[in-house]
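User: Before I run my own analysis I want an independent prediction to cross-check against. Here's the chain; please return only the structure tokens and, at the end, one sentence I can use as a sanity check.
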Amino acid sequence: MVLTQTGRNCSELEFRCQNSRCIPQASVCDVVCDCGDTCNDENNCEKYYDIKSGVSLCTSKTAIVCAHTNRCVRAGNVCDGTNDCHFGSVGADEYGCGYSIEACTNMGDHFLCRDGRCLPQSVKCNNIRDCVGGDDESNCSIGSCAPYEFTCNNSQCIDGRLRCDTFYDCLDRTDEIDCENITCSEGSRKCLGGQCIRLEWWCDFIPDCPDSSDEMFCDEPVRPCAADEFQCSNGQCVPQFNRCFRSNKPREGCADGSHLIGCDNSTCATGQLKCINSYCIDGSLICDGDIHCQFSWTDEIGCPFQCSEEERCPCIDVTINCTDVGLTLFPKNIEHQMSRFLFRGNNLSGSLQKGVFHGMEKAGLLDLGRNQITSLTPRLFQNLWRLKILYLDDNLLTSLLTNTFLGLGQLRSLNLKGNFIQEIDLAAFSGLSSLKTLDLSHQNIFNVSRNAFLGLRSLLHLDLSHNYLKNLNEGVFNGLDKLFSLDLTYNKVTHMESRVFVGLTMLKNCE
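Assistant: Structure tokens:
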């Protein structure tokens, strides 16, 4: 939720809190209090989630549960183009959107939710309800938990000692409900909802019980704060140095968060991060998977996350980075929102078979440089119709077969620098009608066939430097009507026919 200016009229896509704050409509009834001290965004939400023993439980028919933030996203906000899960760059509510039934069916490792999203088979029966309605968790084989374990409502097994301790160990939170008959250990006290908390946490201004009952019946008078302390809105006193600072220790600062209000002009110390137009947070809270910049997500924007089964490949925004990690196979189940694929510096030559890029249809950039690639089969890239940039530099290619690049009608830049290509044959670049930059430098090219570049009608820059060209015959550059620059330096040209550059009316730079 992005904090917006108070005192103004909220838009039709926003909800106005009682304190005049405007929040997105999707943040209403999502389990999390976004309105601040009023929390009126979570009133009258029985249709979307149940509250049992003080624990909020999303109902499967009307919402999904965000796996990382435990927010409930209503069905109407799934696939609306906005990350309402407020986690990473690819929220659970936007995952798998935009695919037709046919496209999803053709991907054998995916299935179609009844809500219309296309998700990988790996999310089935993983105890997390990814589909609205939970059809991904139906018809699952259920094993028995051990005698010392507790069985969550989603069939997950957890250590029985973790039951009713106010910490959510079941992914569906059901380890913290139906706790009325639980006996608390010595040194603990029972919440109204039945959970147990440590005795010293009772009436310390910080709600530890899911129903906040540990802070409801506190009769001790509030003491006046000292000169070096800040008075919180709830009467609590905290050290002044905690003003406008969110520590990595949950019990530092005001329990009601009032020490973080009015911090637009606060200055952060070394090792801290300033949330946009707000308070500072400890550096250890950056990219930890939880949102600490409550109203801007500053601490979780652009953070690495896991978007495939390959743990060696961190993901940031829409980029999966597998550079120099020793891959011999492409990662499986890459999230379909990824559009930048960095595979440079591996050994993927043996994996480059037809269909290997299945599931990467949204690719806009593909880096396969330094992968010991010896050959490219025709139509290898045919399903990457969105691809704009392709790196194949510093490999072991010796030739380019006809139709190698067929299907790459949107490609703008192709880098083949540093291979061992000897000849450029007719139709080697067939299908690259949008290509603007082609780098063929540092090869072993000694011959370019007539009409070799035919079809590259959009090409602006061609680099043939550092090769072994001796003859440049008429027709070599046919079809390059828009060519602006041509680099032929560091070749061994001894013969050039007089009409070799005929038709290159746009050529300005030729070396």
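Sanity check: The mean pLDDT is 87.
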